[in-house]
Design brief:
The protein has 368 residues and is α/β, with parallel strands linked by helices. 35% of the residues lie in helices and 15% in strands. It has a single domain (2-365), classed as Metallo-beta-lactamase, Chain A, CATH 3.60.15.10. The chain has helices at residues 2-6, 17-23, 40-51, 62-65, 135-148, 163-166, 169-174, 183-191, 193-204, 277-289, 305-328, 333-336, 350-365; strands spanning 90-93, 96-99, 117-122, 125-129, 153-157, 178-182, 218-220, 223-228, 231-236, 248-251, 256-260, 294-297.
Amino acid sequence: MKLFYKTLIIFLPLTILIACDQTGEPEKVNLKETLAETETKAIIDTVENTITSLPKPEQAKASQFGPVSAGDDKYNIDKTPGSMLYDMPQQVMDNVWSAIGALAPITYANSGHNNNLSFVITSDGVLVVNAGANYLLAKALHDEIKKLTEQPVKYVVLENGQIHASLGSNYWLEQGATVIAHEDAATEIKENKFANLERLKRTIKEKADKTVVALPGETFKDKRVIEMGGVRFELLHLGPTHSPGDIVVWLPQKNLTISGDMAFHQRMLPLFEHTDTAGWIQTWDKFAALDAKYVIPGHGEPTNMKEVTLYTKDYLSYLRGKVGVLLESGASLQDAYKIDQSAYMHLPTSEFLAKRNAAQVFQMMEFE
Protein backbone atom coordinates (compact mmCIF):
# COMPACT_ATOMS: atom_id res chain seq x y z
CA MET A 1 0.00 0.00 0.00
CA LYS A 2 2.78 2.43 0.89
CA LEU A 3 4.68 1.83 -2.34
CA PHE A 4 1.49 2.27 -4.46
CA TYR A 5 0.64 5.50 -2.66
CA LYS A 6 4.09 6.96 -3.16
CA THR A 7 4.09 6.26 -6.90
CA LEU A 8 2.17 9.52 -7.29
CA ILE A 9 5.20 11.58 -6.26
CA ILE A 10 8.08 10.50 -8.47
CA PHE A 11 9.18 10.86 -12.07
CA LEU A 12 7.94 7.55 -13.46
CA PRO A 13 5.04 5.56 -12.02
CA LEU A 14 6.53 2.77 -9.96
CA THR A 15 4.82 -0.34 -8.70
CA ILE A 16 5.76 -2.69 -5.95
CA LEU A 17 8.68 -4.75 -7.07
CA ILE A 18 6.58 -7.85 -7.58
CA ALA A 19 4.70 -5.97 -10.27
CA CYS A 20 8.00 -5.10 -11.92
CA ASP A 21 8.32 -8.79 -12.76
CA GLN A 22 5.31 -8.41 -15.03
CA THR A 23 6.32 -5.20 -16.76
CA GLY A 24 10.05 -5.86 -17.16
CA GLU A 25 13.02 -3.58 -16.52
CA PRO A 26 12.69 -0.01 -17.82
CA GLU A 27 15.05 1.15 -20.51
CA LYS A 28 18.28 2.74 -19.36
CA VAL A 29 18.59 6.52 -19.74
CA ASN A 30 20.77 7.10 -22.79
CA LEU A 31 23.38 9.58 -21.62
CA LYS A 32 26.97 10.02 -22.76
CA GLU A 33 29.49 8.44 -20.47
CA THR A 34 32.24 11.07 -20.41
CA LEU A 35 32.62 14.60 -19.10
CA ALA A 36 35.44 15.64 -21.43
CA GLU A 37 35.50 19.37 -22.05
CA THR A 38 34.72 18.95 -25.75
CA GLU A 39 31.44 17.24 -24.85
CA THR A 40 30.28 19.58 -22.09
CA LYS A 41 27.60 21.29 -24.16
CA ALA A 42 26.26 18.00 -25.49
CA ILE A 43 25.91 16.60 -21.99
CA ILE A 44 24.09 19.68 -20.72
CA ASP A 45 21.69 19.50 -23.67
CA THR A 46 21.05 15.80 -23.11
CA VAL A 47 20.38 16.16 -19.40
CA GLU A 48 18.22 19.26 -19.84
CA ASN A 49 16.13 17.47 -22.46
CA THR A 50 15.70 14.56 -20.07
CA ILE A 51 14.59 16.66 -17.11
CA THR A 52 12.08 18.79 -19.00
CA SER A 53 9.49 16.08 -18.40
CA LEU A 54 10.08 15.99 -14.66
CA PRO A 55 7.15 17.09 -12.47
CA LYS A 56 7.33 20.72 -11.43
CA PRO A 57 8.17 21.37 -7.75
CA GLU A 58 4.67 22.51 -6.87
CA GLN A 59 3.19 19.30 -8.31
CA ALA A 60 5.48 16.78 -6.65
CA LYS A 61 5.43 15.72 -3.00
CA ALA A 62 3.84 19.00 -1.91
CA SER A 63 0.95 17.23 -0.23
CA GLN A 64 3.23 15.02 1.84
CA PHE A 65 6.06 17.38 2.67
CA GLY A 66 4.42 20.79 2.43
CA PRO A 67 6.26 23.98 1.44
CA VAL A 68 9.99 23.69 0.78
CA SER A 69 11.28 25.35 3.92
CA ALA A 70 14.23 24.36 6.09
CA GLY A 71 12.25 25.23 9.20
CA ASP A 72 9.11 23.37 8.22
CA ASP A 73 7.73 20.57 10.39
CA LYS A 74 7.95 18.12 7.49
CA TYR A 75 11.25 16.93 8.96
CA ASN A 76 9.77 16.30 12.40
CA ILE A 77 7.57 13.35 11.45
CA ASP A 78 7.47 9.85 12.91
CA LYS A 79 5.25 7.30 11.17
CA THR A 80 5.44 4.85 14.08
CA PRO A 81 5.48 6.81 17.36
CA GLY A 82 5.51 3.62 19.41
CA SER A 83 8.80 2.42 17.91
CA MET A 84 12.29 3.73 17.38
CA LEU A 85 11.78 2.86 13.73
CA TYR A 86 10.53 5.71 11.55
CA ASP A 87 8.51 3.13 9.60
CA MET A 88 8.03 -0.62 9.87
CA PRO A 89 9.79 -3.05 7.51
CA GLN A 90 7.99 -3.67 4.24
CA GLN A 91 8.42 -6.73 2.07
CA VAL A 92 10.22 -5.96 -1.17
CA MET A 93 10.22 -9.51 -2.55
CA ASP A 94 10.40 -13.02 -1.16
CA ASN A 95 12.56 -12.96 1.98
CA VAL A 96 13.76 -9.39 1.33
CA TRP A 97 12.54 -6.59 3.59
CA SER A 98 13.41 -2.95 4.14
CA ALA A 99 12.46 -0.42 6.81
CA ILE A 100 12.38 2.79 4.78
CA GLY A 101 13.81 5.73 6.69
CA ALA A 102 12.76 9.36 6.76
CA LEU A 103 13.72 11.50 3.77
CA ALA A 104 15.28 14.01 6.13
CA PRO A 105 18.35 14.69 8.24
CA ILE A 106 18.62 12.89 11.57
CA THR A 107 16.07 14.40 13.97
CA TYR A 108 14.75 13.57 17.40
CA ALA A 109 11.42 12.63 15.81
CA ASN A 110 12.88 10.05 13.44
CA SER A 111 15.28 8.67 16.09
CA GLY A 112 18.11 8.59 13.56
CA HIS A 113 16.19 6.31 11.21
CA ASN A 114 16.73 8.43 8.11
CA ASN A 115 18.14 5.74 5.86
CA ASN A 116 16.99 2.31 4.74
CA LEU A 117 17.57 -0.65 7.05
CA SER A 118 17.23 -3.73 4.87
CA PHE A 119 17.51 -7.43 5.59
CA VAL A 120 17.42 -10.75 3.76
CA ILE A 121 16.14 -13.90 5.42
CA THR A 122 17.68 -17.22 4.39
CA SER A 123 17.30 -20.78 5.65
CA ASP A 124 20.62 -20.45 7.47
CA GLY A 125 20.48 -16.96 8.92
CA VAL A 126 19.73 -13.30 8.25
CA LEU A 127 21.91 -10.64 6.65
CA VAL A 128 21.16 -7.02 7.61
CA VAL A 129 22.30 -4.02 5.60
CA ASN A 130 23.10 -1.10 7.92
CA ALA A 131 23.44 -1.28 11.68
CA GLY A 132 21.23 1.78 12.26
CA ALA A 133 22.14 5.04 13.93
CA ASN A 134 22.00 3.84 17.53
CA TYR A 135 21.64 0.86 19.86
CA LEU A 136 17.90 1.20 20.53
CA LEU A 137 17.10 1.61 16.84
CA ALA A 138 19.07 -1.53 16.01
CA LYS A 139 17.17 -3.41 18.72
CA ALA A 140 13.85 -2.19 17.34
CA LEU A 141 14.76 -3.49 13.90
CA HIS A 142 15.84 -6.81 15.39
CA ASP A 143 12.54 -7.10 17.23
CA GLU A 144 10.74 -6.84 13.90
CA ILE A 145 13.03 -9.40 12.29
CA LYS A 146 12.25 -11.85 15.10
CA LYS A 147 8.55 -11.56 14.24
CA LEU A 148 9.31 -12.87 10.75
CA THR A 149 11.88 -15.60 11.38
CA GLU A 150 13.61 -17.63 14.06
CA GLN A 151 16.87 -17.48 12.11
CA PRO A 152 19.65 -15.51 13.82
CA VAL A 153 21.15 -12.37 12.35
CA LYS A 154 24.59 -13.61 11.31
CA TYR A 155 25.88 -10.64 9.32
CA VAL A 156 25.41 -6.88 9.46
CA VAL A 157 26.88 -5.05 6.47
CA LEU A 158 27.58 -1.31 6.67
CA GLU A 159 26.96 0.60 3.45
CA ASN A 160 29.52 3.19 4.64
CA GLY A 161 30.86 4.73 7.85
CA GLN A 162 28.19 7.37 8.40
CA ILE A 163 26.23 7.71 11.63
CA HIS A 164 23.00 6.15 10.39
CA ALA A 165 24.83 3.18 8.90
CA SER A 166 27.21 2.36 11.72
CA LEU A 167 26.47 3.61 15.23
CA GLY A 168 24.09 0.75 16.03
CA SER A 169 26.92 -1.75 15.56
CA ASN A 170 27.49 -2.37 19.26
CA TYR A 171 23.98 -3.83 19.57
CA TRP A 172 24.57 -6.31 16.77
CA LEU A 173 27.96 -7.31 18.12
CA GLU A 174 26.26 -8.10 21.43
CA GLN A 175 23.96 -10.45 19.53
CA GLY A 176 26.92 -12.33 18.08
CA ALA A 177 26.58 -10.98 14.54
CA THR A 178 29.62 -10.29 12.35
CA VAL A 179 29.71 -6.60 11.36
CA ILE A 180 31.37 -6.04 7.98
CA ALA A 181 32.46 -2.80 6.30
CA HIS A 182 34.87 -1.55 3.69
CA GLU A 183 38.26 -0.69 5.13
CA ASP A 184 37.81 3.02 4.33
CA ALA A 185 34.45 3.05 6.13
CA ALA A 186 36.09 1.47 9.17
CA THR A 187 38.74 4.20 9.12
CA GLU A 188 36.07 6.88 8.94
CA ILE A 189 34.22 5.38 11.90
CA LYS A 190 37.41 5.32 13.95
CA GLU A 191 38.47 8.85 13.05
CA ASN A 192 35.07 10.44 13.65
CA LYS A 193 33.83 8.34 16.55
CA PHE A 194 33.80 11.03 19.24
CA ALA A 195 32.33 13.77 17.06
CA ASN A 196 29.66 11.50 15.58
CA LEU A 197 28.55 10.13 18.93
CA GLU A 198 28.34 13.59 20.50
CA ARG A 199 26.38 14.89 17.53
CA LEU A 200 23.97 11.97 17.82
CA LYS A 201 23.47 12.52 21.55
CA ARG A 202 22.77 16.22 21.05
CA THR A 203 20.15 15.46 18.41
CA ILE A 204 18.26 12.43 19.70
CA LYS A 205 19.08 12.83 23.40
CA GLU A 206 17.95 9.86 25.54
CA LYS A 207 17.28 7.81 22.43
CA ALA A 208 21.05 7.43 22.11
CA ASP A 209 21.21 5.45 25.38
CA LYS A 210 23.48 2.39 25.28
CA THR A 211 25.08 3.56 22.03
CA VAL A 212 28.85 3.35 21.96
CA VAL A 213 31.14 3.40 18.95
CA ALA A 214 32.12 -0.09 17.85
CA LEU A 215 34.39 -0.87 14.93
CA PRO A 216 33.37 -3.53 12.40
CA GLY A 217 34.72 -6.98 13.14
CA GLU A 218 35.67 -7.58 9.52
CA THR A 219 36.76 -5.34 6.65
CA PHE A 220 37.47 -5.85 2.98
CA LYS A 221 38.93 -3.85 0.09
CA ASP A 222 37.21 -4.67 -3.20
CA LYS A 223 34.87 -7.62 -2.82
CA ARG A 224 33.53 -9.93 -0.13
CA VAL A 225 31.24 -12.85 -0.98
CA ILE A 226 28.90 -14.47 1.51
CA GLU A 227 27.06 -17.71 0.73
CA MET A 228 24.28 -18.37 3.20
CA GLY A 229 21.19 -20.53 2.95
CA GLY A 230 21.52 -20.88 -0.80
CA VAL A 231 21.75 -17.11 -1.34
CA ARG A 232 24.84 -15.41 -2.74
CA PHE A 233 25.65 -11.94 -1.42
CA GLU A 234 28.36 -9.94 -3.16
CA LEU A 235 29.63 -6.96 -1.17
CA LEU A 236 31.22 -4.69 -3.77
CA HIS A 237 33.32 -1.57 -3.52
CA LEU A 238 33.09 -0.32 -7.10
CA GLY A 239 35.05 2.90 -6.73
CA PRO A 240 34.66 6.47 -5.41
CA THR A 241 31.09 7.57 -4.85
CA HIS A 242 29.26 9.51 -2.15
CA SER A 243 31.53 8.92 0.86
CA PRO A 244 34.56 6.83 1.84
CA GLY A 245 33.94 3.10 1.83
CA ASP A 246 30.58 3.17 0.03
CA ILE A 247 29.59 -0.33 -1.05
CA VAL A 248 26.67 -2.05 -2.73
CA VAL A 249 25.22 -5.45 -1.89
CA TRP A 250 24.45 -7.41 -5.05
CA LEU A 251 22.14 -10.44 -4.97
CA PRO A 252 22.50 -11.94 -8.46
CA GLN A 253 19.88 -14.66 -7.91
CA LYS A 254 17.28 -12.01 -7.12
CA ASN A 255 18.51 -9.48 -9.68
CA LEU A 256 18.55 -7.02 -6.79
CA THR A 257 21.08 -4.49 -5.60
CA ILE A 258 20.92 -2.89 -2.17
CA SER A 259 22.79 0.16 -3.34
CA GLY A 260 23.35 2.26 -0.25
CA ASP A 261 24.45 5.79 -1.11
CA MET A 262 25.62 4.81 -4.56
CA ALA A 263 22.11 5.70 -5.76
CA PHE A 264 19.50 8.31 -4.81
CA HIS A 265 16.05 9.09 -6.19
CA GLN A 266 13.55 10.45 -3.63
CA ARG A 267 15.75 12.94 -1.84
CA MET A 268 18.52 15.20 -3.11
CA LEU A 269 21.93 13.63 -2.78
CA PRO A 270 24.43 15.57 -0.66
CA LEU A 271 27.96 16.33 -1.82
CA PHE A 272 30.70 16.50 0.79
CA GLU A 273 34.24 17.87 0.71
CA HIS A 274 35.52 14.36 0.08
CA THR A 275 32.96 13.46 -2.62
CA ASP A 276 34.61 12.83 -5.99
CA THR A 277 31.81 13.64 -8.44
CA ALA A 278 33.84 12.74 -11.54
CA GLY A 279 34.81 9.45 -9.91
CA TRP A 280 31.20 8.80 -8.91
CA ILE A 281 30.07 9.10 -12.54
CA GLN A 282 32.82 6.72 -13.67
CA THR A 283 31.96 4.27 -10.90
CA TRP A 284 28.34 4.38 -12.04
CA ASP A 285 29.30 2.47 -15.18
CA LYS A 286 30.37 -0.50 -13.03
CA PHE A 287 27.18 -0.21 -11.01
CA ALA A 288 25.04 -0.12 -14.15
CA ALA A 289 26.92 -3.14 -15.52
CA LEU A 290 25.36 -5.28 -12.78
CA ASP A 291 22.15 -4.79 -14.79
CA ALA A 292 19.99 -4.97 -11.68
CA LYS A 293 16.26 -5.11 -12.20
CA TYR A 294 15.47 -3.95 -8.67
CA VAL A 295 17.22 -1.35 -6.51
CA ILE A 296 16.82 -0.68 -2.81
CA PRO A 297 18.59 2.67 -2.48
CA GLY A 298 20.13 4.14 0.63
CA HIS A 299 17.14 6.47 0.98
CA GLY A 300 13.61 6.17 -0.38
CA GLU A 301 11.40 3.43 -1.73
CA PRO A 302 12.64 0.44 -3.74
CA THR A 303 12.83 1.34 -7.41
CA ASN A 304 14.71 0.57 -10.64
CA MET A 305 17.88 1.59 -12.44
CA LYS A 306 16.23 4.15 -14.71
CA GLU A 307 14.92 6.08 -11.72
CA VAL A 308 18.17 6.18 -9.76
CA THR A 309 20.14 7.02 -12.91
CA LEU A 310 17.98 10.08 -13.44
CA TYR A 311 18.40 11.43 -9.93
CA THR A 312 22.03 10.41 -9.36
CA LYS A 313 24.23 10.09 -12.43
CA ASP A 314 22.20 12.52 -14.52
CA TYR A 315 22.06 15.07 -11.70
CA LEU A 316 25.83 14.87 -11.21
CA SER A 317 26.40 15.14 -14.97
CA TYR A 318 24.10 18.14 -15.16
CA LEU A 319 25.86 19.99 -12.32
CA ARG A 320 29.32 19.24 -13.68
CA GLY A 321 28.31 20.31 -17.18
CA LYS A 322 26.90 23.61 -15.94
CA VAL A 323 29.93 24.27 -13.75
CA GLY A 324 32.23 23.44 -16.66
CA VAL A 325 30.62 26.17 -18.73
CA LEU A 326 30.98 28.64 -15.84
CA LEU A 327 34.66 27.86 -15.42
CA GLU A 328 35.35 28.24 -19.14
CA SER A 329 33.71 31.67 -19.07
CA GLY A 330 35.71 32.82 -16.04
CA ALA A 331 32.68 32.96 -13.76
CA SER A 332 32.94 33.01 -9.98
CA LEU A 333 31.70 30.80 -7.17
CA GLN A 334 28.76 33.16 -6.71
CA ASP A 335 27.58 32.26 -10.21
CA ALA A 336 27.52 28.58 -9.25
CA TYR A 337 24.84 29.32 -6.67
CA LYS A 338 22.62 30.54 -9.50
CA ILE A 339 22.68 27.30 -11.51
CA ASP A 340 19.11 26.34 -12.35
CA GLN A 341 18.23 23.23 -10.34
CA SER A 342 14.46 23.73 -10.49
CA ALA A 343 13.89 20.28 -11.97
CA TYR A 344 15.19 18.78 -8.73
CA MET A 345 13.80 21.19 -6.17
CA HIS A 346 10.81 18.99 -5.37
CA LEU A 347 13.19 16.57 -3.65
CA PRO A 348 13.33 16.67 0.16
CA THR A 349 16.52 18.34 1.49
CA SER A 350 16.98 20.24 -1.81
CA GLU A 351 16.23 23.55 -0.10
CA PHE A 352 19.48 23.43 1.84
CA LEU A 353 21.57 21.13 -0.40
CA ALA A 354 21.12 22.44 -3.94
CA LYS A 355 23.28 25.55 -3.65
CA ARG A 356 25.82 23.79 -1.47
CA ASN A 357 26.11 21.00 -4.02
CA ALA A 358 26.70 23.46 -6.85
CA ALA A 359 29.39 25.25 -4.84
CA GLN A 360 31.05 21.98 -3.94
CA VAL A 361 31.26 20.94 -7.59
CA PHE A 362 32.60 24.36 -8.58
CA GLN A 363 35.34 24.31 -5.95
CA MET A 364 36.39 20.79 -6.85
CA MET A 365 36.38 21.31 -10.63
CA GLU A 366 38.56 24.41 -10.25
CA PHE A 367 41.46 22.07 -9.40
CA GLU A 368 40.74 19.15 -11.71
